[in-house]
Design goal:
The chain is of the alpha+beta class. Helices cover 52% and strands 14% of the residues.
Length: 58
């Protein structure tokens, strides 16, 4: 796996990732990511339904 990932800019290093926690923390990160993704999909469906049924768009 990746040990370090750096972006080098004029003799300074900036880390592009952060260590979240111990073993199993990636599952929590995935849960948060999926909840954001599914809420975005739900918002798209709600907007489509509102435009189709409420505003009579086709």
């Amino acid at each position: 796996m990746l040990k370090k990932l750096y972006y080098l800019d004029s003799e300074e290093s900036y880390m592009l990732y952060k260590w979240i926690g111990e073993t199993g923390a990636e599952h929590y990160v995935k849960i948060v990511y999926n909840s954001i993704e599914y809420s975005d999909m739900q918002l798209i469906c709600e907007a489509y339904h509102l435009m189709k049924e409420g505003l009579y768009f086709d």
